[in-house]
């Protein structure tokens, strides 16, 4: 089965943090249609990694 074609970003799909990181919004994730299981800050599926290592996505 071929991978879905990436969609261009739309207004409201992301923002930049004061540190300069690009953060995808819930709007983007819902349009994407599935969870990437990376522990994204605005995950509408509320996925959280099970490891206690903690990554950039765990910081708020």
TrEMBL record:
Q: Which domain of life is it from?
A: Bacteria
Query: What is the designated name of this protein?
Result: Uncharacterized protein
What does the organism's lineage look like at the top? Answer: Bacteria, Pseudomonadati, Bacteroidota, Cytophagia, Cytophagales
